[in-house]
Amino acid sequence: MTDVDELLNCPLFGDVSRDDVAPHARDLFTRFYAPGQVVFSQEDTSGDVYFLRFGTLLALHLDQNGRELIFTRLHAKDYFGELSAIDGGGRSLSVYSKTDSCLIVIRRQAFLSMMDALPLVRQRVTIDLVGRIRRLTTHSYQLASQSVDKRLKAYLARCALEDGVFEPNGQLLRLPTHAEIAGSIGASREEVSRSISALKRAKILETGRQRLTILQPSALLHEQ
């Protein structure tokens, strides 16, 4: 399967024909990343756009004290880097590979020409950006008004919904580390560990090696 065919498997290009994409794909190429390898750093001035063929990436923000705030985890068929491609500014986040990963890379001008020539792609990028703004609004509210326990519950519920396991005894098999969860919800690793222990004592969840079982999913959505 060619890089163009792999690109067409991404939701961004659903229902877009190969003939429509091919003229803009001359600068398309593939890169492989080992665990821990940096894709790009915060404030990097490159404008390439990336599509994840396989693997897991972490996108994080470093504050002035060097503290990492994990913005999101990226999985197969996700894309990123479009902000710098659109406005020409520096990268707002750093991205590194959590596992062995393969990325399809599109040069900035090729991506912009796709957006100009393909209205469906342009519309989907716009919708994705609006969705990101809405999620940031919700996240900002949670940081300002909710306890660590509430933020952890919301985070676990969202992970379960995204993985399709929000049900009694549903198992999260792609469980982030406590440090990664802490970076995602704006807490310390110790606070996350204490909150998870409290949820285990309340029989809301149980943990095992590289997995978390949600015993009472509704309890993640309501006060206990």
**What is the CATH H-level superfamily of the largest domain?**
Jelly Rolls
Report helical residue fraction. Answer: 40-55%
Largest sheet: 4 strands, antiparallel
Query: Any guess at the CATH architecture of the largest domain?
Result: Sandwich
CATH class of the largest domain: Mainly Beta
**How many domains is the backbone divided into?**
2
User: Could you give the distance between the termini?
Assistant: 51 Å
Q: How many helical elements?
A: 8
Low-confidence stretches: none
Q: Strand fraction band?
A: 15-25%
Helix and strand sequence: HHEEEEEEHEEHHHEHHEE
Whole-number average pLDDT? 87
Name the overall outline. globular
Strand order of the largest sheet: 1-8-3-6
Q: Which structural category fits the helices and strands?
A: alpha+beta
Do you know the CATH topology of the largest domain? Jelly Rolls
